[in-house]
Write the structure tokens for this entry.
Amino acid sequence: MQAVLEKLIHPEFQQSLAELDMLKGIEDKNGILEVKVDFLTFASPSKALLVEQIKQVSDQPVNVVDVTQQRSTQPALGGGALPSVKNVLVVGSGKGGVGKSTVALNIAAALAQEGARVGLIDADIYGPSLAPLAGIEQFGVRMNEHLLQPVEKFGLKMLSQAFFMKPGDSIVWRGPKLHGRLELFCSHTEWGELDFMVVDLPPGTGDVVLSLSQMVPIGGAVIVSTPQHVAVGIASKAIDAFGKLNVPLLGLVENMSYYSCPSCGKADNIFGHGGARTTAKEYELPFLGEIPLNSTMLEASNQGMPVVLSHPDSAPAQALRRVAQLAAGRLAVAAVAGYDAIYSNTLS
Ligand SMILES: Nc1ncnc2c1ncn2[C@@H]1O[C@H](COP(=O)(O)OP(=O)(O)OP(=O)(O)O)[C@@H](O)[C@H]1O
Ligand SMILES: [Mg+2]
């Protein structure tokens, strides 16, 4: 049986389970075959498919035990300003109001739900919006031995400039101060060991990404667009900017992709549809999914919860979970097989 399982081909990597060193033990337990598998990432998009394949090729009942160790896109520990973080994943766009913060919060929550240790930095220093989306009203954070203590909620560790501002406060800072604040959030915060640090970027392609990319090796970026912004080339600008900063792209998401009627479930392409998928194809980038414009999303943000937790079965929650899995899957592919491999794989 061992030999058959070793030869199974991983659907994303196109390598065998033996080559990827994913089988961590096979044992017959009273007629049931216990197969320990390291899926390489907590939110593996192909886990269900692989479990199914393992069961199909086996000649006896199988119990697959998940013994995943998250792979890392960071260089050897000690590098950069977040040395205890395995993967830094940024969420950005060339434009404001497209749903970056919503997507970032939901990716983070979805990864945590899959068992990963996840941090979330709201890097929108001038206009932080994570706190209300996550239902956090807090002024000041705890310190321990001169290190900031992130706020914990939904199994996530979070930090936002909002925790340092009173309602109605605004920030008027020059670049160096902005850089200093990001440094504080990265290097002077007790994050502990994390599998993923999700970073919610401010709108546009400016200072913050530049500063961040100088501070930490960024594992990859997810670009969020809406159909009407694709039409005016905003997604292309973001692709170009990340390219100039050597930030690897994990793929594109189309948010507010279509209107899904909550009562009849009918889809309506009010802003046009599918533009981000076409842009992804044009740039040979992975397409990570379409998130409907849906009142459940607004309800969730009004409740101060990620929709993947408040309405886990809703269409946007399912789409966002898939985005999280595909992004995590691509990071794992990059960690194991290099970045070129993430652009040649076809899973979506
Ligand atoms: N798919 C969706 N359906 C309905 N509402 C949505 C959807 N995506 C985001 N929203 C809502 O749109 C608003 C803006 O979203 P969000 O704050 O995530 O955008 P952003 O790109 O981070 O904005 P900014 O550029 O200001 O940082 C929020 O109120 C959010 O709840
Ligand atoms: Mg935002």
